[in-house]
Amino acid sequence: MVSMIDGVRIDAVLGEAVARGAVPNVAAIAADRDGVVYRGAAGPRLPGGDEPLTPDTHFRIMSMTKMVATVAALQQVERGTLDLDAPVDEYRPEFAQVRVLDGWDGDMPRLREPAGRATVRQLITHTAGLGYWFFSEDLVRHERVTGIPSVLSGSNEIFGAPMLADPGTEFIYGINTDWLGKVVEATSGTPLDVAIKDGITGPLGMHDTAFQIAEGWKDTTTPIAFHTPDGWVDSGVELNQSPEYFTGGHGLYSTPNDYIRFQRALLNDGEVDGVRILSAEHVGEAFRNQIGELDFPASIVSHDPNSSCDVNLGPGLKWGLGLLLNTEDVPGMRRAYSGSWAGMANTHFWVDRSSGICASIYSNLLPFLLPSALEVYQEFERALYASW
Fold first, then answer.
1. Distances (CA, A) of 166 to 134, 182, 345
2. Do 112 and 258 have their domain in common?
3. I want to staple 343 with a disulfide (CB 3.0 to 4.6 A). Which of 10, 62, 195, 278 is the partner?
């Protein structure tokens, strides 16, 4: 039986955040192993509008897509079509053409062969050497001189971007899961959107989750907002609606009510309401340190302040299979080895298997980790655990 918590305190956190202009709007949701225990929202769906945001509003969940794509890959492991420790180029031969950016000769990038062959596991754990432009000055420069675009272009040209380090030597957050999506397509024999619909969103009844804005969603989607001296405004930024490939790294749209079902599957060892999408064994592996002595960086400098602020999450963080792991309890908040991640447009989720709770919070705004938005996220988590 689901026990509903007293949501008055949490409602106040969300409402006050909008009132003080910390975010243009916000929705949040939480569940235990039996079902949803809290859902709420505050603010207008459109900046300056009257229609309210709700837990059924569609958001660009951006890198919260990564865990969905990771589960799709783990499903292929369970079907015997994928070996996580096999080289990526066994499934995608074109990956053998990826080189390491080893410096510059004037304006020309100097490339070399990687010291070893990156594995699929290294894609999942962001240790294959691949990066993102907004966290790499070299990739910003590489895009400028070569014309190879960022992942937001939706172009297959992005797969020509180089590694920044040899596989297995560093944790570098980047386009690894875009490559993983290509591996899923090769091993499943279907496009990524079909593999995810058939294996995850369809079975879980997540009918409001997809890679493109459906016709019926145009009036239920909130725009990505920017803050100006006059307040929050629609930025006009949108994902490519006719991409050349469906990206496992950032492509999904979803609603809080939909994505919580995926989170509950992770909380419940791979099963929700009698529907199993993954074995308990593989769910357990997702919540274990998969990067050994490497660490998730305590701080990461942004090289595109319009896309992301600096990331300063502190020490003691590891990476599982698709999840950031805190190795110690956070006082008044999540327990050690909770799994979490976020999306560039400021959506966040976590799954705390020790406490038996999962939750997520949503706005769509840029840049990522805007301090005012991060503060709201933390206030929500503290209020939830205080009520739990």
1. 20, 21, 30
2. no
3. 62
What's the pTM value of the predicted model, to 2 decimals? 0.97
Tally of domains in the chain? 2
Is 360 one of the annotated active-site residues of the chain?
A: no
Q: Which residue in the list 66, 182, 197, 318 is annotated as catalytic?
A: 66
Pair 339, 382 in one domain: yes
| Token code pair at residue 138 | 């070299």
Concerning whether 63 is annotated as a catalytic residue, the answer is yes
Q: Would residue 27 count as lying in a domain?
A: yes
Which range marks the domain in which residue 147 is found?
Answer: 88-185
215 and 322 co-located in one domain: yes
Per the annotation, the verdict on 66 as an active-site residue is: yes
Do residues 203 and 178 share a domain? no
Per-residue pLDDT of the chain (388 residues; tens, 9 = 90+): 345 687 999 999 999 999 999 999 999 999 999 999 999 999 999 999 999 999 999 999 999 999 999 999 999 999 999 999 999 999 999 999 999 999 999 999 999 999 999 999 999 999 999 999 999 999 999 999 999 999 999 999 999 999 999 999 999 999 999 999 999 999 999 999 999 999 999 999 999 999 999 999 999 999 999 999 999 999 999 999 999 999 999 999 999 999 999 999 999 999 999 999 999 999 999 999 999 999 999 999 999 999 999 999 999 999 999 999 999 999 999 999 999 999 999 999 999 999 999 999 999 999 999 999 999 999 999 999 999 8
